[in-house]
Task: inverse folding
């Protein structure tokens, strides 16, 4: 039949066709069943219930008290209060023990895989126990990214004592501000003005001294030195005019009488001036050379004075950094290297003759980036990763505010792995494996014990150097996903050596303590309504239904919370929730999610899906399956028909032939062949053919929960005995004829019951189930009411022979060893197996080639 998992004799709750634990289902009400059970019910002897018609066979139907479980209110503890952590995780003591062991272990590779279904408290427990362990550990160290002057795109990580990071960054910010001011003062501010005034004064004095020397030499040659814009010029000095008395006069007759002598005297004077200038020329060239040297010396002196001033200013800036702001040797060396780098940037080394550079001082060259910080009184961090991406886990780079080759402070943002360093990182495995690159990079970091840089794009980009990693990763996953990871990834077991398995259910004794406390905790911490004692009793009954076990309760407390939330919305004015409130909420959920159920019932009611629920038919059985739309699981009856004929290939699985049969279903059909050989063909070939098919199924079929239905259809066809159509059948079978448990038993029974009710109950209808599934019965109140009224029946069987007598109306027959070896038959003739044996003999004769 269509089903979702394979049944297991050791775990009947996980058989094929089992409904999802989240699917809400109706549960019996006290008005219907309180009279039938006084406390938590255990399996009881079968109580015969007389049907309206004749009841063939000797299998007794179950009474209603055997088909559900009831919790008496006075069995609950008095005055439930909020649970302590140890009590809340009591059903998961083994998982809690493994978690505590894994969280406390500091050795590499001892990360923890928390395995369990959603809603079982796996994440809550992991976080709660991580808090316990975190309280025993010191606060994590602060993490800063230091500037790497040589490779600016590869900042260097540095760890500081807890709480020291902000003070260090503030000290570097103040240092940057002082350095900017110092550079500005030397190149554009008061220091520059003072140095230029001093140099100009010295240059002027030296130039005057040189000019005075040249002026003396020129005067000795009768020349005067006159300064101008282009330098200086020479003019002749007239000594006679200087020596003559002021009232002396030249006779007019003499001047006019000898013009030739005046011209000759002027020429002679010019020759004297030219001779004087020629004589002074070497001294002029020397003076020009001295002035040029003076200019060079002045510029060199200015440069050296600026260099010394800037060197002293920068040294003073670094000297003002308080020692307490540099708490580790690494950051002290960083400060020293930064000082040396700034001297190189501004050409401040001793003996350096290159001109100073007035480049701006970017903040990214001085100020580090604070990635992670904590207070000294903090405990180890616990980070629950919500954004499981490369940037979310390993950090990211944001755009800077300028085009400097040095990244601005804050350009790099920390990821969850940085924040969890020194503590615990909790990750949902499903979200992690969806992104293969994230999963592989996380493994690389855990194997290397360092946060490795990741490169999303090609080309130059910021790339943090590896950061030392000390983190405990807690991976929360479903069992199926963990199994796949362990099977497909050989490195997974190296990294996650601790496995904490969460149980799907708990004992009733644990539930009597846990369920009341959980209801109280939800009321006080989630703002939900308080639950009365009747409501808590109903919650336990609902928990048994979800666990599919009369002796155990589900640990999926998330589903209980969902039900209480729905009931709180319905009963806004009530002081506390009662059983009726929870029942109304459950009906609301069932109706809201019941579209598929109603659609299937309409198809049965109008005959579009043909299932006969009365009468008899040869080779036809009503098998039961479970279908689900993801929100609710519904039982669906299907006709299983068999046709037998002469041949030699045994049972033929039509679904397998058309590739609609899963491997478990195909295995179940092959087991039928083993059973038929064991009963009817131990000493000769099984010489018949059989065609078995699920009618009106158009989806792949998986699971072996319909093995018994297929076998009964084959036996009915071989024997010619008609099978009852008012009975639905579920259960798997082994080669020895033992009927084995299956899953989804409640949904299958309720599905067949609703189809019968849609066609009208006859008083003879019912379902045959494996006897080992009786403890899994927690049926709805309408089915229980029909059972109590004798209108519907549940028959448990443990062997195929018990079912044969019930369904086919004749005994199966007991095999006897014939006294005469020539005798061909082991079963009495007027039994089902006797008829089958003789039919097989006839078919074998028809299939045998004629002798001749």
Result:
């Amino acid at each position: 039949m269509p089903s979702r998992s394979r049944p297991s004799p050791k775990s009947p709750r996980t058989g094929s066709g089992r409904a999802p634990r989240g699917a809400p289902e109706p549960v019996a009400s006290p008005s219907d069943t309180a009279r039938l059970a006084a406390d938590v019910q255990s399996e009881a002897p079968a109580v015969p219930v007389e049907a309206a018609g004749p009841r063939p066979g000797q299998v007794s139907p179950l009474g209603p008290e055997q088909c559900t479980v009831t919790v008496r209110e006075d069995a609950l503890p008095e005055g439930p209060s909020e649970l302590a952590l140890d009590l809340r995780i009591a059903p998961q003591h083994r998982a809690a023990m493994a978690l505590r062991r894994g969280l406390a272990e500091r050795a590499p590779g001892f990360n923890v895989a928390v395995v369990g279904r959603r809603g079982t408290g796996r994440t809550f427990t992991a976080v709660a126990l991580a808090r316990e362990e975190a309280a025993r550990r010191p606060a994590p160290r602060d993490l800063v990214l230091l500037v790497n002057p040589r490779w600016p795109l590869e900042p260097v990580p540095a760890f500081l004592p807890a709480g020291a990071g902000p003070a260090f960054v503030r000290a570097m910010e103040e240092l940057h501000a002082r350095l900017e001011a110092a550079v500005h003062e030397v190149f554009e501010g008061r220091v520059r003005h003072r140095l230029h005034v001093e140099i100009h004064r010295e240059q002027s004095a030296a130039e005057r001294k040189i000019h005075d020397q040249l002026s003396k030499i020129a005067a000795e040659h009768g020349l005067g030195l006159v300064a101008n814009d282009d330098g200086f010029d020479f003019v002749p000095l007239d000594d006679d005019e200087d020596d003559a008395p002021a009232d002396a006069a030249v006779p007019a007759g003499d001047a006019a009488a000898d013009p030739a002598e005046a011209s000759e005297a002027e020429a002679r004077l010019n020759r004297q001036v030219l001779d004087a200038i020629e004589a002074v020329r070497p001294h002029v060239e020397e003076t020009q050379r001295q002035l040029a040297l003076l200019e060079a010396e002045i510029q060199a002196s200015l440069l050296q004075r600026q260099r010394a001033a800037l060197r002293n200013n920068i040294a003073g800036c670094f000297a003002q950094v308080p020692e307490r702001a540099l708490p580790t040797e690494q950051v002290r060396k960083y400060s020293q290297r930064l000082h040396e780098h700034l001297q190189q940037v501004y050409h401040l080394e001793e003996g350096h003759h290159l001109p100073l550079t007035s480049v701006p001082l970017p903040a990214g060259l001085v100020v580090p980036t604070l990635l992670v910080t904590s207070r000294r009184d903090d405990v180890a961090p616990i980070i629950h990763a919500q954004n499981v991406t490369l940037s979310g886990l390993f950090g990211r780079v944001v755009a800077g505010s300028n085009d400097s080759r040095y990244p601005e402070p804050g350009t790099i943002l920390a990821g969850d792995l940085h924040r969890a360093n020194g503590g615990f990182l909790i990750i949902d495995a499903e979200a992690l494996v969806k992104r293969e690159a994230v999963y592989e990079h996380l493994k690389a970091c855990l194997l290397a014990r360092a946060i490795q840089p990741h490169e999303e794009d090609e080309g130059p980009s910021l790339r943090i150097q590896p950061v030392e990693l000390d983190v405990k990763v807690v991976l929360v996953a479903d069992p199926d996903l963990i199994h796949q990871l362990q099977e497909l990834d050989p490195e997974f077991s190296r990294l996650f050596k601790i496995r904490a398995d969460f149980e799907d259910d708990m004992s009733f004794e644990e539930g009597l303590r846990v369920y009341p406390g959980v209801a109280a905790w939800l009321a006080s911490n989630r703002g939900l309504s308080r639950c009365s004692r009747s409501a808590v009793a109903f919650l336990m009954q609902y928990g048994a239904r979800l666990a599919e076990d009369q002796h155990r309760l589900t640990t999926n407390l998330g589903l209980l919370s969902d039900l209480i939330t729905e009931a709180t919305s319905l009963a806004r004015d009530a002081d506390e929730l009662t059983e009726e409130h929870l029942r109304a909420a459950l009906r609301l959920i069932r109706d809201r999610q019941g579209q598929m159920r109603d659609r299937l019932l309409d198809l049965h009611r109008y005959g579009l899906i043909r299932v006969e629920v009365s009468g008899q038919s040869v080779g036809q059985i009503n098998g039961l399956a479970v279908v689900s739309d993801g929100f609710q699981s519904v039982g669906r009856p299907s006709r299983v028909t068999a046709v037998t004929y002469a041949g030699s290939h045994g049972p033929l699985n039509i679904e397998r032939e058309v590739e609609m049969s899963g491997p478990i279903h195909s295995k179940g059909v092959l087991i039928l062949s083993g059973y038929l050989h064991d009963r009817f063909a131990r000493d000769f070939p099984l010489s018949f053919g059989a065609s078995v098919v699920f009618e009106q199924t158009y989806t792949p079929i998986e699971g072996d929960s319909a093995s018994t239905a297929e076998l009964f259809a084959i036996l009915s066809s071989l024997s010619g005995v008609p099978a009852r159509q008012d009975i639905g059948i579920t259960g798997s079978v082994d080669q020895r004829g033992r009927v084995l448990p299956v899953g989804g038993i409640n949904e299958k029974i309720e599905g067949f019951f609703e189809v019968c009710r849609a066609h009208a109950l006859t008083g003879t209808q019912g379902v045959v189930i494996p006897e080992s599934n009786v403890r899994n019965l927690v049926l709805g109140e309408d089915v229980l009411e029909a059972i109590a009224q004798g209108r519907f029946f549940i028959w448990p069987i443990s062997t195929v022979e018990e079912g044969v007598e019930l369904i086919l109306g004749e005994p199966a027959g007991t095999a006897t060893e014939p006294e005469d070896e020539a005798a061909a038959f082991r079963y009495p003739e007027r039994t089902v197996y006797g008829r089958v044996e003789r039919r097989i003999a006839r078919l074998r004769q028809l299939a045998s080639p004629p002798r001749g």
Remarks:
- The chain is about 45% helix and 15% strand.
- The radius of gyration is 50 Å.
- The mean pLDDT is 81.
